[in-house]
């Protein structure tokens, strides 16, 4: 027992033994293979989703003769494809594996901040014209339908307000961490 | 084409084995600094080694192998911390310097208890402070710590100074108290 009178925490820290056996190349290759298979599956979700959207929009297009419905469908389809592609870029970003720790942290915190501030809504923005066009088409056919979403909105509004306030508070905390990181990197 | 890919993979394996032989124990300690739970720590250790192997396929010599290994490992560790939703608030070294040690005032404790205290202290730090302290404990100099973390020389000097004060107060009998 040397106790804490030992003047060198570095020696104490470095004296730790390893907890487990070193990983073999076989284990690493197996883990990487499993990870790659998972990534390939995740990447496949986007083309599959685009294909399903194409089929659905195509069927509805064929069934419909009205120009306004076809325009709405085209807008929905284009918006959906753009949203899928944007989601793919967000989900699989190209990044430098050995960027400095501060640069890595800054990028992660910026992403968290964007998410906390509702940046994910930007993902849905390409779908907005299509949804508006659909709403207009439905509204033209029945005035009742236009008011139908109101009770649902009344239920959702408090929830949305709560989530918005919570994410704003989270955003403030992340912004404080980002500002501190900026100070540390500037010197 | 396949031969080229195979040669490149062999080179990646060779680099990984070199890095693991030289820095394996340090990466184990680094994982301890990022995760208290033994099962989650095993997963983190695997993540670090996997990320390191994958990254070495793109090793371009822009920095030393040591800097590369530590950057990849700390980035994986920081990512692990950021993903933990249930963790408590993390402190900076400055806050630890201001607050009293809540541990047993009995200073003459065993090495294992001392190690537990040190590990707990590290695990309670914000990622940038944790990185500086972990690299300091690995005996890297300020320039190397700057290369790995990307923090300014002034910020690193200040953090090391404060880390030394905290370590002295908490881990050395009668000193810095």
Condensed summary:
Chain A is mostly helical and 187 residues long. Chain A is built from 8 helices and no strands.
Could you walk me through the main structural features you see in this protein, from its secondary elements to its overall organization?
The complex is a heterodimer of chains A (187) and B (177). Helices cover 79% and strands 0% of the residues of chain A. By secondary structure, chain A is an all-alpha fold. Chain A has one domain. In chain A, helix 2 (25-63) runs antiparallel to helix 3, helix 3 runs antiparallel to helix 6 and helix 4 (101-116) runs antiparallel to helix 8. Chain B has 177 residues and is mainly α. Chain B folds into two domains: 2-83, Orthogonal Bundle (Rna Polymerase Sigma Factor, Chain: A); 93-171, Arc Repressor Mutant, subunit A. Chain B has eight helices and no strands. In chain B, helix 1 packs antiparallel against helix 2, helix 1 (2-34) packs across helix 3 (65-83) and helix 2 packs across helix 3. The N and C termini of chain B lie far apart (65 Å). Chains A and B meet through helix 1, helix 2, helix 4 and helix 8 of A and helix 1, helix 2, helix 3, helix 5 and helix 6 of B.
Helix-strand blueprint:
The complex is a heterodimer of chains A (187) and B (177).
Chain A: H1 9-14, H2 25-63, H3 67-91, H4 101-116, H5 121-124, H6 128-141, H7 143-147, H8 149-186
Chain B: H1 2-34, H2 38-56, H3 65-83, H4 93-98, H5 111-123, H6 127-137, H7 142-149, H8 153-171
Helix pairs in contact in B: 1-2, 1-3, 2-3, 3-7, 6-8, 7-8
